[in-house]
Amino acid sequence: MPRNDSALGTPEAAARTSLTTRILAVNIFALAMLAGGFFYLDSYRSQLIDARLDETATQTRLIAEAYSVTPPAGRPALLAKFGLLTDTRLRVYHYSDPAAPPAEIKRAFDSWSLSGATYQLRDPSQEEWQKRVARFLDRSIDVIVAADRPTDYHEPDVDTLAAWPQALTALHDRNMVTAVQRAPDRTPMIIAAIDVRGTNGGGNVLLSTENQRDITRIVRAERLRLGVVLLIVVLVSVSLSLFLARTIVRPLRRLALAAHRVRLGRAREVQVPRLPERRDEIGTLARALSDMSFAIRQRIDATEAFAADVTHELKNPLASLRSAVDSLGLVTDPALQKQLIDVIRDDVGRLDRLITDIAEASRVDAELARARFESIDLGIMIEGLLATREDRGRNGQVRVAFARPHRGTAVVFGDGSRLTRVIENLVENAVSFSPPGGLVQVAATRDGDDVVIRVEDEGPGVPPEAREAIFNRFHSDRPESEEFGRHSGLGLAIAKAIVEGHHGTIIATDRDNAPSGAKFVIRLPAWSR
Question: Which stretches of the chain drop beneath a pLDDT of 50?
Fold first, then answer.
């Protein structure tokens, strides 16, 4: 049944994207947080403009106070001097009656008439391309951050009080009025107006205009610095993301491709990269997959070899059985018929033993994986097993001696029925190779953290070159006196599989200080409370 990634806690949308894309997305998200600094710049610009509005309001109020106490003859020079000092254009609109129509209240004085222009409104179409690019960026960022858009600033064709809404408001409310407008080149224009009313009902409206180009320069400079930092961080982040993706995604792709080839099984041996230079989790994964692939190949090879051996072993008794059955219908001599029936009976018994041992050998690993282990006192277990063999006369003319250890000395953690099968197979093998009147010695002792079991016989022994092969399945090296087909050749193979399933070892060697005979040594981890 296919597994859904969403059931494992992985969002479905993320599961459809590559790991490289997700790494880049995470890092770019972090960069987007840094890019939020552009919103801070808009707030910074607003704070600058607010500060300039307050500064201009205070400055205009002071100029108005100075204007009101200066004799009329000195007022033009005063305004011209203040205009130069503050880089502003100061205009005075004189009225005799505050209720007069605004269009009739005309400009009485302009500081530029004496001091000359203190700022210049630049035509964007006449500027260099760099300025046009800067303004395009200004417009784009203003749209992104949803900045407030001031009204456009234009010099009136007819300069009367009616052309200046701020001056009209100051006349009617008799308060300081400030405003921000935008020059043609997108730089802020600060406008301030204040009513300076005389004692006779007439008065003047003082209007101050100033092009705060330096605010735009400051914001652009900060934006440039932030942009440079952001660009550097983007380059570093993308480079690190690609490096991270390369060091993670590429090895994973190689491992996935190798695992896919293993699954297809088209190649006899698939080399899964072990990545020995990696000491991180990916290296651990690569080596684990390589070991797993090697173990799978070994298991497949063992299964194929086992199937071939089973086929070969079954063919012999089946061929003999078929020949006896075919001959039985042609023979009329009762003695020969009885002989053929005995052959059939022996072959059926041989097949039964062979199939039973094959089934046992094939399910040992699976049953051990599911078995419930418990503490087993091997001394008590072996003593009971040997007593049962003796009662049933299975030892024949061979004597079996057991040096029983003290109770609780030889205790292991395992499956009692399987360990009984191991000892049964070893004792059966020792008895079959022992001469009449021979002695088979069984011992179980504690050796450090292990329990050691020894089974020794007085038979011909095991040649050094065959001490590994005897544990192979269907290995057949039986004594000449033994009836053919009595053993399947699986006993020692089953014993080895059970011992290794208990994390132990089994070996065959020569007896100590004896002219002949074999000794099988089993080591199992001792169980401690």
Answer: 1-15, 478, 480-486
Helices 416-433 and 334-370, axial angle in degrees (round to 10): 140
Contacts 24+ apart (CB under 8 A), 129-134: 131/185, 134/220
Give the containing element (helix H, strand E) for 377. Answer: strand 374-377
Round to the nearest angstrom and report the end-to-end CA distance of the chain. 42
According to the model, what pLDDT value does residue 407 have?
85
Cβ neighbours of residue 160 closer than 8 Å, sequence gap 6 or more: 93, 102, 103, 104, 105, 106, 107
Residue pLDDT, tens place only, 329-363? 787 788 888 888 888 887 787 777 777 766 666 66
State both tokens at 54: 């307050």
Contact 517, 457 (CB under 8 A): yes
Cα(67)–Cα(210) distance, integer angstroms:
19
Are the CB atoms for 254 and 278 separated by under 8 Å?
A: no
Of the candidates 288, 307, 287, 297, which has an alpha carbon nearest to the alpha carbon of residue 263?
297
Name 151's Cβ contacts closer than 8 Å, sequence gap at least 6: 181, 182
Q: What angle do CA 168, 171, 175 make, to 5 degrees?
A: 110
408 Rama sector, left if φ>0, alpha if ψ -120 to 50, beta otherwise:
left
pLDDT tens string 248-270: 777 878 887 887 777 776 666 66
Q: Where are the alpha helices (DSSP H) in 265-374?
A: 281-328, 334-370
Bridge partners of 250, per DSSP, are: none
**CA distances for 346 relative to 1, 284, 339, angstroms:** 48, 55, 11
Give the residue carrying structure tokens 């395009």: 136
Q: Which residue has the tokens 């953290």?
A: 449
* 415 in Cβ contact with 373 (< 8 Å): yes
110 forms beta bridges with 91
Q: Residue written as tokens 């009656």?
A: 97
pTM over 0.90: no
β-bridge pairing 399-403 and 439-447: parallel
pLDDT 10s digits, 383-432: 999 999 888 888 888 999 998 888 888 999 988 888 998 999 899 888 98
Domains and CATH numbers, the chain: 35-223 (3.30.450.20), 272-370 (1.10.287.130), 373-529 (3.30.565.10)
Strand partners, 428: none
Parallel/antiparallel/unpaired status of strands 399-403 and 188-197: unpaired
Q: Please name the amino acid found at residue 230.
A: L
Give SS3 for 272: coil
